[in-house]
Amino acid sequence: MTRIGSDQVTGASTPATIREMEVGLEWCVDVDGGCLLKVQAQPRASETVAAGVHGDPPRLKIRIAAPPVDGEANEELLRFLRKTLGVPLNRLRLVRGETSKMKDVRISGATAADVRGRLHPRK
């Protein structure tokens, strides 16, 4: 069920508030029961690390220390998110991009603000 209020826009696969879109935060948005994290994966990196927000529309770039073979990079991405966000693996689900660099991960029971703060803290 999609929530629509006076501060939300629709038309995309996931609703984002106008405030989030205005300040470029749509790489992680609240959805019913959790949030949706939009990732640009870079496999075969020397270490797994969040590397900032890139692109238009923006996505969080995550360098992944695993090859994109037999789901290894996807598994490493979910392990990194589990450790960084402190959530159980069963609350993370790859909902789009299983064979693509552009991936969407649903995080149940978390808010977009909390996820953004843990993955991309402002200095």
Structural class of the secondary structure composition? alpha+beta
Mean pLDDT: 84
What is the chains' assembly state? single chain
Residue fraction in strands:
25-35%
The tally of beta strands, per DSSP, is 8
| Largest pleated sheet | 6 strands, mixed
- How are helices and strands ordered from N to C? EEHEEEEHEEH
Count of spatially separate domains: 1
Rg, Cα atoms, Å? 14 Å
Q: What is the overall number of helices?
A: 3
State the helicity in percent bands.
10-25%
Predict the CATH topology: Conserved Hypothetical Protein Mth637, Chain: A
**Cα-to-Cα separation, first versus last residue:** 36 Å
CATH hierarchy, class: Alpha Beta
CATH architecture: 2-Layer Sandwich
CATH superfamily (homologous) name: YggU-like
Broad shape? globular
As residue ranges, the low-confidence spans are 1-22
